[in-house]
Amino acid sequence: MNKLSLVLVSAPLLFACSQPAQQNVSTETKQEAEFTQPAIIAGTDYHSFSNPSEIQVTHLDLDLTADFEKKQLIGSVKLEFERKDPKADTLIVDTRALTIHSVTAEGKPATFELGPEDVNLGSALSITVPPDNTHVTINYSTSPYASGVQWLTPAQTQGKEHPFLFTQAQAVHARSFIPLQDSPQVRVTYNARIRTPKELLAVMSAANDPNTPRDGDYQFTMPQPIPSYLIALAIGHLDFKPMGQRTGVYAEPEILSAAAAEFEDTESMLELTERTYGPYSWDRYDLLILPPSFPFGGMENPRLSFITPTVIAGDKSLVSLIAHELAHSWSGNTVTNATWRDLWLNEGFTTYLTYRIMEMLYGNDRYNMEAVLGYQSLEHDLAALPDNDEILAIDLRGRNPDDVFSDVAYEKGALFLRELEQRVGRKNFDAFLMQYFNHFAFQSITTDTFLTYLDNTLLKDYPEKLDKARIHQWVFEPGIPDGAPVPQSDAFTKIDNVRSAWLNGDIAAKAINTENWTTHEWLYFLNNMPDGLSEAQLANLDSAFSLTQSQNNEIAHSWLLIAVNHQYKPAYERLYDYLVHIGRNKLVKPLYRALSQTPEGKAFAQKAFEEAKPGYHPLTIHANEGFVTDGD
Ligand code: BES
Ligand code: ZN
C-alpha cells in the first residue's frame, strides 16, 4: 500500500498527496486502507498539490532570464487568480527543485511555505493571500537539473557554435521551471518576457514573430487559455522559413531547408483537418525542430509544435508525426484531458485523427499500413503490460505518469474510436467529432464527462448500433475487446509472402525486389522477423540492403533491435553511435531494454549510456538508467 492512497482515504478532495495531509489520516482509516483501495474520484488530479477549487490561477506574467553559464532560468512569475471559495486564504502551487527567493502579494511581502518533497510531484508552495488580493509575484530560479528543461552545449546542436535550451512540460514538469498550478484542468493565458544571449532567438507556445529583432529580449502573449503542460520555451540559434500561409518552421539554419522540404505538406494537413473537424483555433501552426536529444517524437505546444529531427528522412515517410502533433490542436489543446488518467482523450483521439489525416493526404494504402503498424505496436505493448495498465482510464495514483507511457492510450484509444466509426458510419462519426470539439472547446474534461456526452449524442442517435456495456469494456477493462476492428493492409500481405519465401530459403535477399518499398513496408518486413535467425541470414539481409547503415532512423531502429536480440555484432558500432546521438526515448529505450537482457549486452549498454548521458534529456536518463544499473 503506498503512501498516496493512504492520504486519499482521508482527504479525497485534496489534490494529490503530501506528508502534511497524512497527519489527518485516522488510525481507523489507515487500517481500512490496508485492505481496500478507495475508489478513484473522477476529475481529482492526483498529480498536483494545487487547490484550484478554492483559488484558481487564471493568468501568468513571466519574466525570465536564461543564464546558460549557470544553466538557470532566473526571474519572476506573477500569478493572477480568482477566488472560487470566498473564504480561502491560501494559494497552493506546484514546484519542483525551484529556489524561491521571495513572494509578494500585490507588492507586499507574503507568507509562504514550501512543503516536503514528493519524488514524483515535487513540493507544494503554499502562499497566504490577504482577502482582497488578486495576484502574487514569485521571484525564483530553476535548478540546473530541472526535470522539464534541457540545457544543451554548442556541441549538442547542429551548428556547434551556440547553446540551446528547450522545455518539455508534459506531464508534470512545468512546475520545474514555473511555480504554478500544474494541473491540466487549470487553464491560463500568459504573457512572457524572456531575456537571452543576444545572438539567440527565444520562441514559445504563444504568438511568435519570426521577424523580431534578434536583440536578446523577447515578448510573447498567449491570449487563449491553455493548461500548464502546454507552456513551452526554446532558445537557440534559430531561423524561420514559411511553408504556407499559416505554417512555417523554426530550426537551426543548417537543417532549416531540409525540414521545410520534409514537412511541406503541413499546410495541406491543416486545411484537411479543418475541413473534417472544424476550424483551427490557434491562429498559426509552426514547427520547431529541436536537437536530436529531444526526448519525444513531438510535443503539441500550441501554435508551435516541438519536433524531433529524427523524422527528417528525406522522403516524408515519417510525417505522420506532424499530423499527430497538429491533430492535438483539436484533441488535447482545444479539448483537454482533465487529469492524467484521462490521457487517452488526448492521445487516443489524436492517434485516430492522425490516421484519418494521413489517409486524406496520402490515400488508403498508407492509412492501412500505418494502422497495421500501430496495431502491432499495441499488441507488442499489451503482451508485456500488467492488466491494470491496459485500461484506458488508467489508475495512476502514486505513480509518475512518465513511467506509464505505452500504446494503450494511443492505439487502444484510436481503435475504440475506429470501432465507433465503423458502427455508426464514417460520415456520422465525423459529424460527432466536429460537434464534440466544438462543445468542449477550451475545456478540460474527464473520461466520465466524455462517456456522458457519448450517451447523450451517439448512443441516443444510434441506439441499435452501439452498446453501453461494450463501451464500458473498452474504457474500463484491460486488453482489446473481442471482435474489435483489426487493421489490414494488402501491401503488407505481399511483404509477408516475400519474408516467408526468404525465410524458407526459396529466394535470396538480393533477389527480393524492394525498389518500390516504402518505409512502412520495410518496418513491417523487419518488425515481423521471427526470433532465432542465423548469423548468416542476418549478414545476408545486411549485405543485400545495407540495413546497418540505414539513414532512416525508424528502419535503423527496427534493424538494430533485431541485431541486439540476435547479438549480431557487425551492427554494434552503428548501435553505439545511434544510442549516443539520439535521445528520443521511443527509439532508444527498446534497445537498452533488449541489451540489458544479457551481461555482455548490459556492459555495452552501460558504456554507451555513460557516454550519452551528458547529452540526454532528464526524462531519457530517468527512463533508461534502470536498464544499465547493476543489480537490476
Ligand atoms: N503529447 C505527446 C507527448 C507526451 C505524452 C509527453 C505524454 C509526455 C506525456 C505527443 O503528442 C506524442 O504523442 N508524441 C509521440 C508522437 C507519436 C505517437 C507520433 C512521440 O513522441 O512519440
Ligand atoms: Zn500525442
Task: Annotate the secondary structure layout.
Blueprint: H1 3-10, H2 19-22, H3 27-35, E1 55-67, E2 72-83, E3 90-95, E4 99-105, E5 108-109, E6 112-114, E7 123-128, E8 135-141, E9 149-152, E10 164-167, E11 187-195, E12 201-204, E13 217-227, E14 233-236, E15 239-242, E16 247-251, H4 253-262, H5 266-277, E17 285-289, E18 298-299, E19 304-307, H6 320-327, E20 335-337, H7 343-362, H8 364-384, H9 407-424, H10 426-439, E21 443-445, H11 447-456, H12 458-461, H13 468-476, H14 490-503, H15 519-527, H16 535-545, H17 553-566, H18 572-581, H19 585-595, H20 599-612, H21 618-628
Parallel strand pairs: 1-11, 16-17, 17-19, 20-21
Antiparallel strand pairs: 1-2, 2-8, 3-7, 4-5, 4-8, 6-7, 9-10, 10-14, 11-13, 12-14, 15-16, 18-19
Helix pairs in contact: 1-3, 5-6, 5-7, 6-7, 7-8, 7-9, 8-9, 8-15, 9-10, 15-17, 17-19, 18-20, 19-21, 20-21
The structure holds ligand BES and zinc ion.
Question: Could you describe the 3D structure shown?
Answer:
This protein has 632 residues and is an alpha+beta fold. The chain has 3 domains: 1-20 and 48-232, Sandwich (Immunoglobulin-like); 335-476, Neutral Protease, domain 2 (Orthogonal Bundle), CATH 1.10.390.10; 490-628, Peptidase M1, leukotriene A4 hydrolase/aminopeptidase C-terminal domain (Serine Threonine Protein Phosphatase 5, Tetratricopeptide repeat). The strands form 5 sheets. A 7-stranded mixed beta sheet has the order 5-4-8-2-1-11-13, with no helix packed on it. α5 (266-277) packs across α6 (320-327) and α5 packs across α7 (343-362). Residues 1-33 have low confidence and may be disordered. Bound molecules: ligand BES and zinc ion (ZN).
